[in-house]
From TrEMBL:
Entry keyword annotation includes Coiled coil: yes
Region of interest (Disordered), ranges: 171-191
Protein name per Swiss-Prot or TrEMBL: Phage baseplate assembly protein V
Coiled coil: 2-29
NCBIfam families reported in the protein's UniProt record: phage_P2_V
Compositional bias segments (type: Polar residues): 178-191
Source taxonomy: Bacteria, Pseudomonadati, Pseudomonadota, Gammaproteobacteria, Vibrionales
InterPro entries, per database record: GpV/Gp45, Vgr_OB-fold_dom_sf
Gene3D superfamilies xrefs: Gp5 N-terminal domain
Organism encoding this protein: Photobacterium sanctipauli
Entry keyword set: Coiled coil
Amino acid sequence: MMLELMKRLRSLEEEVLALREELEENRRAAANIIRLGVVSKADKTTVAVTSGLNKATRIPFFVHCAGRVSHYRRPSVGEQCLLINLGSGDNLNNAVALMGLPSTQYPCPTTEAHEVMTDYGDGMTEFYNLDSGKLTAHYPGGVEWYAPTFKNHGEIVDHTRSMQADRKIYNGHKHSSPETGADTSNPAQQQ
């Protein structure tokens, strides 16, 4: 009877050890399902990400739309991301990188609830105030518009005056005749 009891205890011990190994494997796999990482290299459609001591390469990165409407922004080296491991286990090369986590290197351009801002770098920003409806844009390299038609529903103004004020000046201006000194008539073609 003692021998049977010893065999049974040994069998139970082996089962507990097997369950312990399985539990450790599951814990390790669960720890790799979602990980915080940092981009170490960025290519056209993939990134290399370092997460702790692990490095995952050729990971596709998330863009917020990629269908009929699409958007592209290559991630920056040093940018934080979430790695979602689709294959589970220890191999992070089956992951997808979700970009856009603010960090000390890449902080939020604004944190106000009524402000929406995109900072493109090098002084180029677009800032929209949800309360006032005002859009403020800084384009240090200039702006080019390509459109078959253009409608302006507001006044176009430069640093001196509006286009309407320029029209009034042009339409009302006269010149003096060089021969007689008399004023000429207003321009025949009004603007």
